[in-house]
Fold this protein.
Amino acid sequence: MKPFSILLIRLLGLYLFLKTLFSVLPVLIGPMGSSYWSAEVLLLLMATVAVPMVGGALLWCFAARLAGRLHGDTDAGIAATDVDLVRAGTFLIGVYLVVRYLSVLVGAYVSTGSIAYEALVAVVAGLGMMLGDGGIATLYRKVKYFGADR
């Protein structure tokens, strides 16, 4: 399960990095790209672009450590149950929410000085998914066996 999680964490990091890069690159190198290099817009651009790109690079670099903390440092092979996959997927969705919406939260605060509450809720939900003790896996197990005589 640990090698599978390492692969998925690295794919998530690559996705975050490339999606952010490819979404901002056409704007910066386009015909009106020089207007985005002003001090006011550059700070906002760096806040909303740098956070997901740095987060994606950190996910790529520290994928093995994150997988080790998620599954323990024992290498039990690839034999994984569906609950393990739900736990790993929930963790990855939480990481995505934190990295993606943290940039929205920082960008809104830098540009307007106010807090984007929808982004704050997404960050808190992502942290709950990352740091949770398997609550979603327990819910999945209950739904999976609902009505079954076990």
